[in-house]
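Sample 3 of the quickstart, ligand alpha-D-glucopyranuronic acid:
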Amino acid sequence: MVRIGVIIMTLAIVGTASSGDLPDPTALPLKAELPDPLAMFEKGVKVTTKEQWEKRRRPELKQLFEHYMYGTAPKAPKVNAKVERIDKNALGGKATLKEITLTFDGIDGPKIHLLLVIPNKGKGPHPAFVGMNFCGNHAALADPKIHLNTNWMYPSQKGVKDNKATDKSRGTNIDVWNIEDAIDRGYAVATFYSGDIDPDRADERGIQKYFAKEYDWSTVRAWAWGYSRVIDYLVTDADIDATRIIAVGHSRLGKTTLLAGAFDDRIAVVIPHQAGCGGTGPNRAVFGNKGAESVKRINTSFPHWFNNRFKQFNDEPERLPFDQHCLIALCAPRPVLLSNATEDQWANPTGQFNMLVAADPVYKLMSSKGIASKTMPAVGKLMDSPLGYWIRDGKHSMNREDWGVFMNFADKHLKGK
Ligand code: GCU
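Result:
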C-alpha cells in the first residue's frame, strides 16, 4: 500500500502537462536565443541531475516535439514477422540475406518489407546498420530475387514508371547503400522502403489511416514509428546484436533517423546524414548559414512532413519552446554523428554544428564527453567525439566515402561493447 502511494505521488511530481494543457503557439513567448535544454518548460526550473533529466525533462521535451512539430504517434501494436526467404550464399558467399515481412497485429494495412544482410565471417551476433531507403530494397543490391516493391515510388528514382518500380530499378542504389563494404567490415545492414509506412504525399496517408484520428502524426513521425517497429523485430533476431544498432538515414530520412533515435533508446548510435531543416538544422534562422531551408519554406513545400500546429511557427520560429539541439540532446549519452557536404548549404551544415554544440551540456550531465571542440572540423576530417561531425566536399548524396566514415564512427563507439 505504502509503496503504491509513493509511486503515485512521484508520478504526480514528475508528471508533465498533458498536451491539452499546452499553450497555443501564438501564446508562447518569443525567444530569440536557443531555449536551454536543461530548463523545464514550465517555470524554467533547472535540471541538475541525471534522474531529473530522464524522469522529467526528457519526457517533457518528447511531448513538446510531438505536440508542436511532429505530431503524436500511437503506441506500438505487436509486430509479427514472417521470414520469406533466406539465402546463405549472398554476395558471393560473404553474407546471409533474409527477406522478412513485418505486419502489425490487428491491422490489415501496410506491411514492412525488410531486407537484412548479415556477414558470414566472424562470430555473431553482429552490429547492424538500420536505415530507410528511398528506392525499395530491390534497388539496394543486384539480386533479381529481392521483392520488387509495389508501393507508390518517387518518379525521380531510376527505373520508376508511373510511380511504380520496374525491373529496371533493380540494383540502381548499390552505391548509396554500399552493403558489401559494410559486410566486409563486420556490419549487418537492415533496410526498408519509407513508402511501406507512408507514401510521402500531401494527398495520401499510409499507416496513419489505421489508427484513431486523435493522433496527428505527420509523415516524418510515422516514418520514425516505422523505424521502431523494425527494431522491435531486429532485437529478436539471433544474428543481430540488440545493443549495437546504428540508425542511418539521408535527408528527409535523416530527419526521421534523428527523431527515431531521440524516441527509441534501443538505437545505440544515431547518424542523420544531410538532414537539415526539420531534423538537425536550427529552426531559428540566425543560428544557421545563409541559403539554408527555413521552417516556412519546408512547411510550404512539404505540408505533410510535420503536424498542422508546426505551420503556426512559419513566421515566428522563435516561439518554439525548443530548437533542434533539444532533439539531439534526447539521444544523450548515445553517440550522434551529423554528416554533411560543402555544396549542400540547403541542409545547413553550420547550423547543424551549432545544434551539436548546444546539445553538449546535456551530454556532459549524462557523463558523456560530448563534443570535442566548439570549432567546426576541417572539411574531410571526422570529429569522432560522442557528439560527432563530418563534412566532405561535394553534393547532396549518400556515398561510399560517407559509409566509410559512418563505420569509423561506429567502430570507435561500439568497439568493446
Ligand atoms: C528537399 C527538402 C529537404 C530534404 C530533401 C530530401 O530538398 O527541402 O528538407 O531534406 O528534399 O529529402 O532530399
